[in-house]
Specification:
By secondary structure, the chain is α/β, with parallel strands linked by helices. About 35% of the residues lie in helices and about 20% in strands.
């Protein structure tokens, strides 16, 4: 009997041809179809899209066949499409949900299966558990309509998802002002779905857009994986300096995450970018609204919340927690440590394209370069330092978790431990307002150790102590 398909932090991911096979993709699609039908969506439309990984377009057609075989109708994208565009099209086309064939930032060996609700956002943990339960154990229990027959009877319709989003995203910023600013913008879409988008949006004025890694190449040369952190972005940072660019905008493989490099070719880590975007919306645009953050992201947001008198909500890691809380509170911004940020009046989904446009608008409205924007932020909340270590682990996960729970450290990195939070992993609060977090990835067999502190000289000591607590060192 085939293995059970398990959904992690953001859907199901697996190694292509090992566990991520056509049969298993069809089984997962059947589980989602059954879930949608349970909720009374028979005959309604579902959006299906995909990224530029190996065979993604063919896996997407396999998903469409199963959905159509279950009496659902499918809007299937006619090309690789950014995740935020797929999410927007769910709302735009009044669909009841979406499937996105993508493994986002995973290594090139992987592919994935993301599901979205009628709001275009991540499905909550209870919904994911139900989808898992509805996935059949064998391919024989999967209903399916041949793609050619489905296209003929129009239960599957190919469509161009770009144009509606292209119009929609321009409502958020003054595109012409960015075009007229005279910036040199280096864009690294990491061989993924963000290729061409900033060029298309911002060309035709004084601003110059230079793209690298903008072709399809599922092996992701010059990087380990299409994740917008170092060392994957080192070539982009170098190209920023070589081209004397004012800023580097990076999108990950499916363009739902956004990374930033400054004018000196230095990476601005994702916690700082999140705080910068929140500060921009609150201070520069004068907007007000709740902030939603995962516990693995920056306490600078808590400080901004106090300064601007807006509530800050902390959730577990993953947009399956962030999206529902954003909808509940009509949040101004929501985000996580991985570089995914979502914004009010858009869909409750990470949007690397809008995030990049907002950052450019921040530069236009203030007349400042990225290093100067950081200085503005730090004058408000103080300078914060962050780092993360990802490490494979062996042995029983539950035993390792119990060991971490029993560790009971009084100090970490020389700072007093003030509280232990176990909402998602193990977060040790420190007396400088910083924290150490140890948690197991929901999508890969690795353990992550993260920290944030006001003391640059204590970052490594905090991480080292974290690894010891986790039984790695």
């Amino acid at each position: 009997m085939p293995d059970k398909i398990k959904f992690g932090t953001d859907g199901w991911r697996g190694v292509i041809a090992e566990d991520y096979t056509f049969d298993n993709v069809r089984r997962a699609a059947q589980g989602f179809a059954s879930y949608l039908l349970e909720k009374g969506n028979a005959g309604k439309w579902v959006v299906v899209g995909y990224d530029k990984r190996f065979h993604s377009e063919n896996f997407a057609e396999a998903v469409a066949e199963v959905l159509a075989g279950n009496g659902l109708n499918v809007h299937l994208t006619d090309r690789a499409t950014p995740t935020p565009v797929i999410a927007f099209e769910v709302v735009n086309k009044k669909a009841c949900g979406a499937v996105n064939v993508t493994a986002s930032h995973n290594p090139p060996s992987d592919n994935g299966f993301k599901v979205r609700d009628e709001n275009g956002g991540a499905i909550d943990p209870e919904g994911l558990t139900r989808i898992e339960a509805l996935i059949p154990d064998t391919i024989q229990d999967v209903k399916r309509k041949n793609i050619k027959a489905a296209v003929t009877d129009k239960s599957v319709v190919y469509f161009d998802a770009d144009e509606a989003y292209f119009t929609h995203v321009q409502k958020f910023v003054d595109i012409q002002q960015i075009k007229d600013a005279g910036f040199t913008v280096l864009v690294d879409p990491m061989w993924g779905n963000g290729a061409g988008w900033f060029t298309r949006l911002l060309s035709g004025g004084k601003t110059k857009i230079i793209e690298i890694h903008n072709e399809r190449n599922p092996s992701y040369p010059e990087m380990k994986r299409p994740e917008p952190i170092r060392p994957n972005i080192d070539m982009g940072l170098k190209a920023t300096v070589d081209n004397k660019a004012d800023v580097l905008i990076i999108t990950d493989g499916d363009a739902d995450r956004c990374g930033i490099g400054d004018e000196n070719g230095e990476f601005i880590n994702q916690l700082r970018v999140y705080a910068l975007l929140a500060y921009y919306l609150l201070e520069i645009r004068g907007e007000r609204g709740d902030i939603v953050k995962t516990l693995s992201t920056t306490t600078m947001l808590n400080k901004l919340g106090k300064l601007y008198n807006v509530p800050v909500h902390e959730t577990g890691v993953g947009f399956k927690y962030v999206a529902p809380k954003m909808i509940e509170t009509n949040a101004l911004i929501g985000g996580e440590e991985s570089g995914g940020y979502a914004f009010r009046n858009n869909v409750p989904e990470r949007d690397g394209i809008l995030g990049g446009l907002y950052f450019l608008d921040f530069m236009v409205r203030t007349g400042k370069k990225p290093t100067e924007l950081l200085k503005m932020l730090f004058e408000k909340v103080g300078e914060h330092f962050y780092d993360r270590v990802d490490t494979p682990f062996s042995g029983d996960r539950r035993m390792r978790e119990q060991k971490i729970l029993n560790a009971n450290p009084k100090t970490i990195g020389g700072l007093k431990v003030t509280e232990l939070i176990t909402v998602d992993g193990f977060q040790f609060k420190l007396d400088d307002g910083g924290w150490l977090l140890i948690r197991f990835s929901g999508t890969e067999p690795i353990m992550r150790v993260y920290c944030e502190t006001m003391h640059e000289d204590k970052v490594q000591a905090i991480l080292d102590d974290g690894l010891k607590i986790a039984g790695i060192n």
